Amino acid sequence: MALFGRRTAVAQQSERRLAKRRTVDCAARLKLLGGEREGRLSDLSEAGARFDTPDPPAKDMSGLLVWHDHAFFGKVVWAKDDSCGIVFERPIPHGIVEQTIAAAGPAHVPLGPVARFGQIPLGQKRGRGHLAIVE
Q1: CA distance 66 to 134
Q2: Residue 15's pLDDT band (boundaries 50, 70, 90)?
Q3: CA–CA separation, 70 and 98 (whole Å)
Q4: 34-85: pLDDT as tens digits
Q5: DSSP strand E in the chain: where?
Q6: pLDDT higher at 15 or 114
Q7: Alpha helix (H) ranges present in the chain?
Q8: Number of neighbouring beta carbons within 10 Å of residue 30
Q9: Checking DSSP bridges between strand 70-79 and strand 83-88, what pairing results, if any?
Q10: Residue 28: phi, psi to the nearest 5?
C-alpha cells in the first residue's frame, strides 16, 4: 500500500522551491487566455512569484505575468483566496529580480521611536482609555 510508502524522489523534488523568494511590492498584471487580472507582486525569485489579486486564477492556468517593463510566461501552481503562486516557464535573470527589489524601495520602514524602558512605570496597570458613561 502507498499509504505508508516513501514518496518518490520526483514528488519530493517538486515540493521544493528552486530559488529563494525575495519580498517585493509592485503593481503587476497577469494576462490569461480568458482575461486579465490586476494585482501586486509580493515576492519574486528567478523561478517564480507570488501574485496578490482579489480574484486569483485557478491552479494549472498559464499566463503572462507583467510588471514594470518585464513580462514572463508562467503557470499557476497554487491559488488561495487573494493570491496565487506562479512558476516561470524558464528562470528569469537574477538582475531582473534585483532590479525589481531595488525599485520597490526599502522592505522595512520603522513605525516610530523605540520605547525607553527607563520611563515605563513598574507595578501600575496601563490605562486603556475606558469611556465613562455619564447619565
Answers
A1: 58
A2: very low
A3: 13
A4: 899 999 999 999 999 999 999 999 999 999 999 999 999 999 999 999 999 9
A5: 22-32, 35-44, 48-52, 62-67, 70-79, 83-88
A6: 114
A7: 9-14, 94-104
A8: 25
A9: antiparallel
A10: -150, 165
What radius of gyration, in Å, describes the C-alpha atoms of the chain? Answer: 23
The whole-model pTM stands at: 0.66
**Do 61 and 76 touch, CB atoms closer than 8 A?**
yes
Residue type, 134: V
Distance, CA of 70 to CA of 59 (rounded, Å): 23
**Residue for grid cell 497577469:** 30
Return d(Cα 99, Cα 9) in angstroms, integer.
35
Question: Which residue in this structure is represented by grid cell 516557464?
Answer: 89
